[in-house]
Isoflavone reductase-like protein
Amino acid sequence: MAEKKSRVLVIGATGRIGREMVKASLDAGHPTLALARQSAYSDPLKSSLLRSFAEAGAVIITGSLDDYPSLLAAVKLADVVISALPSAQSLEQMMIIHAIREAGCVKRFIPSEFGADPDKVQILNMDHGFYKKKADIRRRIEIEGIPHTYICCNFFMSYLIPSLVQPGAKVPPRDKLKIYGDGSVKAVFVLEADVATFTISTIDDQRTLDKVMYIRPPGNVISMNELVEFWETKIAKELEKTYVSDEELLKSIHDIPFPDNSDLIFIYSAFIKGDHTYFNIDKAGVEASCLYPNVKYTTVKEYLDTLLQEG
Amino acid sequence: MAEKKSRVLVIGATGRIGREMVKASLDAGHPTLALARQSAYSDPLKSSLLRSFAEAGAVIITGSLDDYPSLLAAVKLADVVISALPSAQSLEQMMIIHAIREAGCVKRFIPSEFGADPDKVQILNMDHGFYKKKADIRRRIEIEGIPHTYICCNFFMSYLIPSLVQPGAKVPPRDKLKIYGDGSVKAVFVLEADVATFTISTIDDQRTLDKVMYIRPPGNVISMNELVEFWETKIAKELEKTYVSDEELLKSIHDIPFPDNSDLIFIYSAFIKGDHTYFNIDKAGVEASCLYPNVKYTTVKEYLDTLLQEG
């Protein structure tokens, strides 16, 4: 008989990171369940995604967080629950925690974080509760004694890199650009698919039980100056740079109403405050690329190559 | 955390015995999966049944034996697989066995038998392969080394009892009836819901691992003479009896084309040959009501009471 693999339930399976989790789980040979709302079948993109999941061997369960019996029934089938809910729904994860407690079979819960560490970020006064809600979910998980791993992938590669950190732009600049702060602070960008591969690698790994897993692979920890230099080398042209000071950035964040200033807030967090990298990983944490040296991931440089083809 | 319960997959979940298995599994607190064809949703009765399963906490998986990836994906989520396919589909269980081997996670397989013991019946020359197919499935299970329990419930209560063993009749006779043989041979009748309750009781029980479980509860092992006597007492009237000899019954079986003679074949097996009771349960077997004395079951007498109300 084949080795028994943990059964993985992905909640929020049709979302940007959820779909990658389903694929990575199937790729790793896990029996995989995807919870989808009935309404997903009326959405052409989502229904085609669900069909592709089913063809690849996933089991689609119709249900939602609003329908607790359906959520509980799904959780009862899972050894591992991965929440990939959008950040706006962070607090709805309280229902998942409740179901995990009631089901009693879940060996690992991965709550929806997939960003910076909510216990480390230094912008809690300006993010309108974005990280506070994620921290609250951590505390609830810990109080309930639910085995867990928190995944801090920092930024998704598709966020900010396609514009070279120029809010509002769709493609990287070819003439001039803004650099926030002095351009030396390092942020971290990881491709969604790689986040999923690293996440799935942790679920049966005792080394990551009840830990924070930071994803900081070499080649993905990068300052704005380095990013611009890579890009200039690729397009063989020097760009005109305007430096935006901390004070100017804070003034813009203050002057522009929320949520239109969200990108600026996250830029302030990552490139001024250094929220992705200002701290060393302590005993409560592990680093993904150290734990899983065989995982092939896309570096920022490689990702910039794909932008060059499109630009 | 609550005790972890085996996850049960029922294949053939909308059928007569399958629906009882789903209910009994849910009643016993097992996470329960029901495999249903897409087409079941177009059938008003089946779709309403599936809806009631989902409301009671089962997870409905769309799939079928014809769609191997869907079958495999479902089996991978299960610790226990219960096949409740109709007898005509007995050999299609080879696909289930294949999926169980590939999935590698199934701790118990209950193939679809729910009749007399196919290794004990003495009518293999006249049943058109009915029991041979079930015996073939047993041999395949054993060759593949799949942990199993075979359930021999003999006859369902709803088979033959409502007519007092008068083929073709819809209600029990109130004037005269036929008795096959001398009326002293004992057969066994068990309510479908009770078969399911006993079956679900075995799935995490090491005493039934790789055994045949016979369901022969006191009050359900009965001869035609006893059955008629019970009925006569209930209706306070003596019936006129015609005794049909072995030879006469065999002649009828021979003269009537298959499958119209099926009831007579099963009557011959049970009430002439004594296929339900002619043997003692040996070391390869266990008896359900001895193992699970707390299971409340309906006796033949109690069942006859319900017929009286209708008659």
Summary: The first helix of chain A runs from residue 18 to 27.
